[in-house]
Amino acid sequence: MRIYVTGIGTVNAVGCNVEETLHSLSHGISGISSVEYLETIYNSMPVGEVKRTNRELAQMAGVDTSQNLVRTPLLGVIAAREAVSHAGIGNVGGLRMAFVSGTTVGGMDVMERYYDDFTHNDSKNAFLYPHDIGDSSEYIADHIGGFSYVTSISTACSSGANAIILGAELIKSGRFDIVVAGGAESLSRYHFNGFNTLKILDSEHCRPFDASRAGLNLGEGAGYVVLESGNAVALLHSTPLCVLSGYANACDAFHQTATSDNGEGPYLAMSKAIESANLKPSDITYINAHGTGTPNNDLTESVALRRVFNDTMPLVSSTKAYTGHATSAAGAIEAVFAVMCVKYGFCPASLNFQNPIPETGIVPLTANVQTDVNHVLSNSFGFGGNDSSLIFSKL
Amino acid sequence: MENHSVYVNSLSQISVQNPLCDDWTAAPRTFPGERLVNCLDPDFKQLLPANVVRRNSKVLRRAMVVSQDALKKSGLTQVDGVFTGSGLGCVESTEAFLQGLVYSGEEFLKPTQFMQSTHNTISSVIGIALSCNGYNTTYCHKGISFESALLDAYLQLTSGKIASAFVCGFDEMSATYHSLLCRSGYFEDGGTGFAGESAAGGVISTLGNVNRICCIAAVRIVYTKDKALLADTLSAALCDAGITIGDIDAVMTGVNGYPSNDAAYFNNLDMLNLGCRRLGFAHIFGESYSGSVYGFYASALCLQSSQIFSVLDLDQGKPLARKPENILIYRHFNNKDHAFIILRQC
Fold first, then answer.
1. What sign results for the dihedral spanned by CA atoms A137, A140, A143, A149?
2. Hey, are the CB atoms on B124 and A173 less than 8 Å from each other?
3. Residue B208, pLDDT score
4. Cβ contact (<8 Å) for A149 and B127?
């Protein structure tokens, strides 16, 4: 069964919508800069912030600003609303819609601000909703409306990709006709400091796949795609942008935060995704790599890329140097990028690259390429070895 | 689409009852007046290597022990995927890191607490414990966390995409987080309910030649406040199972002793007021987001042993006139998320 992508929406460090994001990607404009909004003592660290206050985000989202404003779901409402509007979803008649969203941070920004009050007194009870992952997804779903199943996935940095995989499975099962799937993640002191304690944040701009890479820059944002069955496309007269032709989720089953030396999880995710799309590795036009810029990820991802593609490597780049690593939203934001690549026939350059990793010698794109893009492979690899790959293909 | 039958092959639990056994069916531990009860853990040092016990938080130890016990009991040596439901993830490690951040600032934080705090840590530890390189995912969606995980596994099993899965629910509860969730209204004032934790799961598969406890005949979840859509969803579940409402021998509810939670069950499901046998699990295992895994476990045990354990019976009624063949499990959360599971004797 074909799964059509009929709408996309995103907000991230390089754009508050698809159009702005497309402009930044096609002009090599990075959104990485010093901390402005996150409250941290490490404010010289580079991050991929969405340069808007929560109040400004709420206005963009069309949300009542007198209510408790939580960053993750606000980002989610903006991107999900854009995707639904892009797909032209209005009256769906008897068609059944589901919403699947990935996040890890959820309302942690509010939690870290009011934790002491939340656990000791009633003074901040008004800020208790929406605070956890399920709340965050239902908040987004309720602001869009029309969903008869809402669920949340949290598989760290592959959450958004796994939400899209579930969306496709829900359509294939015949239970749903339209699924809005993706993820949202805001910066929080909690996970910024978590990554900092792991010593994998670069104090300079990240350099994916470069020999000198020294870590990642955290980012934030949201991305959603609208998936439809053929039946829904026909009934709603939707205009498909591309198809989600394959996907796979595999587990490295090796270590909580490091990937195995031979990149088994990433290898399985990519090769099974290609197999599920009935493609050969040589059919892939472009790979939007996970490419965070950490020594461990980029090395093991490169090893896995060599195992899958050997010496006939498709075009490869990482877009993390534009947006930063938006963790649970990354897979969904990059799925939106993949759809843009297929639709507009271009592959974005990997910024800040100079010398290849000696062990694998992979050279990512250093300039944008305009070309017919038939199949994009999008990688998302998470803590815990939760590795997923998606393939978006031309109609 | 292929349509394979799905069986429950094994179950294992750590809970507020005695761990890794089913003796609660005869004489459960009781907790009169308690508002929060934590799991009664087995002696992990007897079950896991000393360095593993030392390095891992409680919920991770529970995950390793329960998953390995379930795999052993199933008769399989490997599963094709791991599907975890956890409303809140690793609360103990999350709170430890959060308290460090809130009370001591950003300079003295411990990486291990962060590493063990992401919600998917549990599922990834299970992946490692079971040496499973297959599909691995974590659902964190309030009171339908376990059901969402089960639905994903069920769809992949019925379509033939995978042949076996470990499906589970894990949640921890601390005293401080309990106070927060009392404020949020999840743990209600009044009533007889108590908050618990969850740590249970089982192997389910489409395989014929292994241990079978019961069959999973339907899994349906709906997000709605509309009673008509709720009724349609129940009808769809009955249709999936090929039965009518009269074939249901008992309903395992999420009634937990919290007044407004409980009232919704009787408002939503007419059959609960029309003489149908009403069961519960939360008065024995406590309430937690993924705690419905115990309702699934208890219902499966009833079907396996062809009896309704009287300790589950909310009405303490007479024994069933017939052997139970079909049990409907219904859980709602906030009267918005509703899940129906039908288990059948096999």
1. negative
2. no
3. 80
4. no
